[in-house]
Amino acid sequence: MSDEAREAAFTPKVGLFRRRPAMAERWWTPVVSIDYDDHLGHNIAATACFLGVVMGVGMCLTAVSGWTATGIFGIYMVLLPLYHIFEYQCVALYNPHRVSMESFMFNPDGGNHYYQAMLVSIAEYAVECWLFNNAKTPGLITLLGLALALCGQVIRSLAMITAKTSFNHLIANRREVDHDLITHGIYKYERHPSYVGFFSWAIGLQLMLKNPLSLVAFAGVLGYFFCRRTNYEERTLVHLFGPQYENYRRRTPTLIPFVSKGMRTPNVPEGPDN
Ligand SMILES: C[S@@+](CC[C@H](N)C(=O)[O-])C[C@H]1O[C@@H](n2cnc3c(N)ncnc32)[C@H](O)[C@@H]1O
Asked: TM segments (predicted)?
């Protein structure tokens, strides 16, 4: 897509990140921001405030309790809202025309499964702390989980920043004017970085909490979910970009177990589990 076409398609209204013509563009250069209608603006502000409060409570808990089971739960209370804040922030800065309340990614599959999974993992942590307090004492596994979760967060956000307007939380089966095939940056090394990032973040958090049941359940459910999703997504991408995507797919791994080559289907059938 040419620069003129891009400019014509998206004329920014008000924004902190107005593109300056002389500014050299890099992959991290934000796109432009738009002004929201008041209702959306208030909802976003209220949600961000709530997430900030949860993070604040988590930080206090860790500051007071230190490297203990309670302190680790405090870190969890920081990392969980941080993920949602980054999701929103990446859309707002790099894909501002798609910003909405959904950008916080509170119900990624359109249902309550995400909340249920998080509640179950918190319940597991509480019950196991009560029954086997010693087993929850932080150690190497906790550190490994924390590192995995942080790496996952970085990979996920990097993918969103790199793909910019081509990144859509819903799988596109129609090509928009601002949807280009992304093969550079982190997409050069693997073709589903945001899924790998989310997987690593979610598994890392359960490892950090030393939650064996949730760890196995998350790995199984997420593995199955991403396997189906990438399969469908790749068929849509072949449909949208043709041989360009097929070549890219051939030379770039997924790094997700069981998701390798995908299938070639020129016609995209019925909808995915968006
Ligand atoms: C939630 S994003 C996930 C992107 C990618 N699977 C990842 O894990 O980073 C889904 C959207 O990204 C688009 N997409 C996926 N890979 C892409 C690529 N390499 N270039 C451009 N768009 C891509 C799909 O068309 C879909 O609309």
From this structure: 44-64, 71-94, 114-133, 140-161, 198-227
User: Is the whole model's pTM more than 0.90, yes or no?
Assistant: no
Q: Which two tokens stand for residue 24?
A: 């050299």
Using the mean position of ligand 1's atoms as its centre, give its distance from the Cα of residue 262 in Å: 14
Contact 236, 175 (CB under 8 A): no
- What is the residue with the minimal CA distance to atom 1 of ligand 1? 169
Alpha helices in the chain (DSSP H): 3-9, 38-65, 69-94, 113-131, 140-163, 193-208, 212-241, 243-251
Cβ proximity of 146 and 249 under 8 Å: no
For the stretch 188-198, pLDDT in tens is 999 999 999 99
ipTM score for this prediction: 0.99
Compute, in angstroms, the gap from residue 191 CA to the centroid of ligand 1. 8
What domains sit in the chain, N to C, each tagged with a CATH number? 35-251 (1.20.120.1630)
Ligand 1 site residues (CB inside 6 A) read 159, 163, 166-169, 171-172, 181-182, 187, 191-195, 233, 236-237
